[in-house]
Amino acid sequence: VRVRLWGVRGSVPVAEERMLRYGGNTSCVEVTLSDGTEIILDAGTGIRGLGAARASRGDGVHVLLTHLHLDHIQGLLFFSPFFDAQAHVEVWGPPGATLDLRERLARYLSAPLSPIEIRELPSRVTFRSIPSGDWRIGNAHVTARLVLHRGTTLGYRITEGDVSLCYLPDHEPALGASLETQPSQWISGHELARGASLLIHDGQYTANEYAGRRGWGHSSIEDALAFAHRANPNHLILSHHDPLHDDEHLDALGDAARSRWESLGHPRANLELAAEGRIVQL
Amino acid sequence: VSSSQQPLAQILARNLLASIALPGLLVDEEGALVFFNGAAGELIGRRFEEVGQLSREEWAVRFGPFGQNGEPIALDSLPLALTIREGRPAQGRFSIRTTAEDVEIDVSALPLVGEDGFHGALVAFWRPGEDAGQSG
Which among A51, A83, A80, A44 has a CA at the least distance from the CA of A65? Predict the structure, then answer.
C-alpha cells in the first residue's frame, strides 16, 4: 500500500514561499492499494495536483471525504477525473440530517460559488453517505466512524492484509476529556487508530494556540501525541498544519514533538510532520 | 475495528457531563448506566469510579426509584424508560436512595439520537426547589 500526501495544510491554502517546503495545499491523501485501486482521502486543494498527475485511465476512483468543510472539498471542482467522460468517481462522505451528500456538495458546486453544476459533470459520479460502517474497496477493508470535530465528521481506517492506515485530519479528542485517564473506548477515534501501521492525525495548534481555540475541532500537537500514545501506531504523521505556521516554525514544532514522542517511549524516527509530496510505503 | 468503541454521541455526552456542575448521568440503548458525573456522585454519595457501569436492574436495586411514600416505582414508568422506549424527551419527579437518605429529585431525560442512530439518553437531575446546577 502506497500513501502519498498531496495536501497537508489546514483551514485554508497558503502560497507564501516560506510555507511551501511543508506545502500550501489543503487536505488530500492518495492511497494506492496493492492491486492498483486508488482511494483518495479528502478533496482539499491538493486533489488538483493529484488529478493532474493521474493519467486518464477510464477506471474507477474512490474519494472518501471526512467532512464537508471547505478545506476538505475545495479541490473537487478542479479534480480532472470529474471532467473525464470515461471516469467513474465514487464520492463517499458523512451523512446529513436532512440533505444527502450530493445535495450538500451541490451547495458548493453550483452558482454563485461555481460556474459548473454537479449535473453538468461529464464523468459518472456516485455519491454515498456513510454514517459509520465497514465495506470493501478493491483489496482493502474500509472502516468509517464518526469522530469528534465540529459538524458531522468521519475518520477512516483502510486495511489491506496486515497493514493499515488511519486518517483523522480534523479531530479534537481532548475536548472535555483527559486523554491520559479516559478509558480507551471513550476516546473518540481510538478504535480506528489503535495499532495502525500509519496514523495521520490533526496537529494544527501549539498548546498556547489551542487554549484560545478549544472547541474549534482541532488538536494541539501535545494532545495529538497523547492520543497517539494511547493508540500506539507504528508510524505517526501530524498534519493539517495551521496556515500561520511557516516552515521554520514547523521545523521547531516537529523537533519538540519528536522529543515529546521519544519521552513517551516511542522511537523518535516514527514521528514526522506531514509534508506535501511525502510518500510512505506500508 | 471492534465494536467496543462507544458511539460518538455517547462520548460527547460523557465529555459534556464531565465538564458541567449539573448532576447528570448517561445510559446506553438498553438503559444501562454507563457514566455519571461528579455532581451526580456528590448527590448520591458515590463516585462513578466506585460504582462503575451498571445494568438497568442493578442500578434500580442500588438507587431506586421510589415514590413519595417510599414505595418502589416500576422502571418502565420512569421518564428515562419513556425516552429509551420512544426516543423522546421526558421529565418526572421521584426519589432515589443515596448513601445517606432518600432524596427527591426532578429528572429530565434527553434521547441521544446521532446521525448513526439511537444511542441511549442523557439524564439531568436536581433537587426540587434548587436551581439546576446548584444542587451538586
Answer: A44
Q: Kindly report, residue by residue over A110-125, the tens digit of the pLDDT.
A: 999 999 999 999 999 9
* Grid coordinates belonging to B35: 457514566
Residues A236-253: tens digit of each pLDDT: 999 999 999 999 999 999
The yes/no answer to whether this complex scores an ipTM above 0.90 is no
Tell me whether residues A95 and B18 touch, CB distance under 8 A: no
Q: Which residues of B touch A177 (CB under 8 A)?
A: 11, 14-15, 18
- Helices H / strands E in chain B, number of each: 5, 5
Q: CB distance from B12 to chain A under 8 Å? A: yes
- Burial class (CB within 10 angstroms; exposed 0-12, middle 13-18, buried 19+) of B71: exposed
Shortest CA distance from B5: residue in chain A: A185
In DSSP notation, A132-143 reads: SEEEEETTEEEE
3-state SS of A16-62 is: CHHHCCCCCCECEEEEECCCCCEEEECCCCHHHHHHHHCCCCCCEEE
Distance CA A71, CA A7 (A): 10
| Amino acid identity at A156 | Y
